[in-house]
Design goal:
With 157 residues, this protein is mainly alpha-helical. The chain contains 3 helices and 2 strands. The chain has a two-stranded antiparallel sheet.
């Protein structure tokens, strides 16, 4: 029996060796398959990464455009507030003029001011001295010149 037992043991070993060899082959095949599958996953990840990059670029483009729009709107708001303040000043001036019109003495002063400033009219017996060397002289430039003189040109008698 010793010999028979030895033969049985040898058969078991041989079968175990075959089993181990087949097991090793199966494991190697699995490793090969695993090596091949990540390439496919890598391609899928590349498509995902491409979509992600496109999304990020779109988001950045949209954010940049919106900040430009906001800045433009801020500039427009600042301009409109300046226009509003100018209109309020003019409205206040017109209200003061309306108040002056209701008072006879103030009305006459207002008419005189308009006649002197806008139409270059003078009072009777008034002598006008014109400085030809002065660049901002209204009388030299003509009626309708917008800058106001300091009053040095007109001297009352």
């Amino acid at each position: 029996m010793n010999e028979d037992q030895k033969i049985i043991e040898l058969k078991n070993r041989i079968s175990n060796d075959d089993f181990r060899r087949r097991e090793m082959e199966i494991k190697q095949n699995k490793r090969r398959n695993k090596r091949e599958t990540p390439k496919k996953k890598k391609n899928k990840l590349n498509v995902f990464n491409l979509f992600f990059v496109i999304f990020v670029l779109y988001f950045a483009y949209t954010a940049f455009n919106q900040t430009q729009m906001i800045n433009n709107l801020d500039v427009q708001i600042a301009q409109k507030t300046l226009e509003k303040s100018d209109a309020e000043k003019e409205a206040n001036k017109l209200k003061q003029d309306v108040e002056k019109i209701s008072n006879d003495d103030a009305l006459l002063d207002l008419i005189e001011e308009v006649a002197r400033d806008q139409y270059k009219m003078v009072k009777p017996n008034e002598i006008i001295y014109i400085d030809k060397n002065k660049n901002d002289n209204k009388f030299i430039k003509g009626i309708g010149f917008d800058d106001e003189t300091t009053g040095d040109d007109i001297i009352n008698n």
